[in-house]
Amino acid sequence: MIQEEGHVKIRDLSEKFEVSEMTIHRDLKLLMEQGLVKKIFGGVQLQEVSNKIQQKQCTYCHKPISNEGKLTYQLILSANRIERTCCAHCGILRHKQLGEVVLQALCHDFMTNTTISATTAWFVMDTSLQMGCCEPQVLTFGNKDHAEKFVKGFEGTVLRFEEAAERVTEAMQASCCSKQK
Amino acid sequence: MIQEEGHVKIRDLSEKFEVSEMTIHRDLKLLMEQGLVKKIFGGVQLQEVSNKIQQKQCTYCHKPISNEGKLTYQLILSANRIERTCCAHCGILRHKQLGEVVLQALCHDFMTNTTISATTAWFVMDTSLQMGCCEPQVLTFGNKDHAEKFVKGFEGTVLRFEEAAERVTEAMQASCCSKQK
DNA sequence: TCAAAATATAACATTTTATAACAACAGTAT
DNA sequence: ATACTGTTGTTATAAAATGTTATATTTTGA
């Protein structure tokens, strides 16, 4: 409903789902904390378009994003929203978190800095070259050949989007005391 | 209303939105503080805007935009907003994303650097000349003849705006694992 | 220049919406 | 069965928005 209208009243949601307004408030709070919607007095609306306020922080880890930002990852969402993360590590996690709201994802070829689509990119993990952004590190490449040549020199594994996503998620959920969630 | 007329009376706004004039005054005060409108005795008018804030980053992929910016694409939006992308690739995607908000779109002829309208420009894709900005690359030409001569030497396909938009969107939404959404 | 009319502002009252604290309830593990 | 957990609804209270009235300011026209 919010997606379609751009703005909905708490009362409408309450009637629609046949629950109290209190419940709606509570549920919206979660969406708000995820940064998906914005509560205004009397309703909810989609989070502001970020075209003026240049995002200077990673949406996921909140680290400042450097200006050249070769490592950054951009998420193009519905309703003209754009999010930006410091690197593919945070980008992939946020991407998975948002799910279908993500219309497109952009990243940059590590060698040429060409902007490419993340879903078709090649991801390199476990390499010896440490960029020092996030752990586990994920580098992005526009073509397989480059990624493989890179790995030849700097070691690591070449992965597709889904594989990389799985690896990162797994690594982040691992617990210190080996008992998985 | 203010946008369209350039000048509106408080009373009209009050009747239009079915609230008291006091509320209109209060709400306009906020717009005024944001510098969007100017209150005059008996009404509001649009505030003149200075587009001094030159964007130095691509609105879409956030890559820094070089100063000569031969490849850049400009979107002229309502309410005197201007957005700038690094190249036609991002420009077209952002253009489609914003939809009707875009009043005009500018780009440059690849050979002469002449500023031209994007909607009437000729777009060249799949050429052998790699500028290294974004993938899939899109070059812009002011006239069909030039585009075709370019293609004769450097290969590629000459497209109109809509065709190019479709091609780029498709490429960006493609998934790595061949199962389309 | 001045008074009358029109419009704006300030202060307060009223209404609407949000939040916090608590109680009721269902499901789950012990 | 019992204690625990998490969700929901209810109530009271707080916060925000809106409307009303009285007063100030600006404009208009003689």
3D structure, described in words:
The structure is a homodimer of 181-residue chains. Chain A is of the alpha+beta class and 181 residues long. Helix content of chain A is 33%, strand content 23%. The first copy, chain A, contains 6 helices and 10 strands. Chain A has helices spanning 2-5, 10-17, 21-33, 88-98, 144-154, 161-173; strands at 7-9, 37-40, 43-46, 73-77, 82-85, 102-108, 115-117, 122-125, 138-141, 157-159. In chain A, the strands form 3 sheets. A 4-stranded antiparallel sheet of chain A has the order 5-4-6-7. In chain A, α2 (10-17) packs across α3 (21-33) and α4 (88-98) packs across α6. At the A-B interface, β6 and β7 of A face α4 and α6 of B. The structure holds a DNA duplex (30 and 30 nucleotides).
User: Structural class of chain A, please?
Assistant: alpha+beta
Write the H/E string of chain A, N to C.
HEHHEEEEHEEEEHEH
For the record, give the distance between the C-alpha atoms at the N and C termini of chain A, rounded to a whole number.
33 Å
Major β-sheet strand ordering of chain A? 5-4-6-7
Helix content of chain A: 25-40%
Q: Give the strand content of chain A.
A: 15-25%
Unreliable segments of 5+ consecutive residues of chain A: 49-53, 175-181
Gyration radius of chain A, rounded: 19 Å
Major beta sheet summary of chain A: 4 strands, antiparallel
- Give the number of helices of chain A: 6
Care to count the β-strands of chain A? Answer: 10
Shape of chain A: elongated
Q: Multimeric state of these chains?
A: homodimer
The overall pLDDT of chain A, averaged over residues, is 84
Most extensive chain interface and residues per partner: A-B, 30 and 27 residues
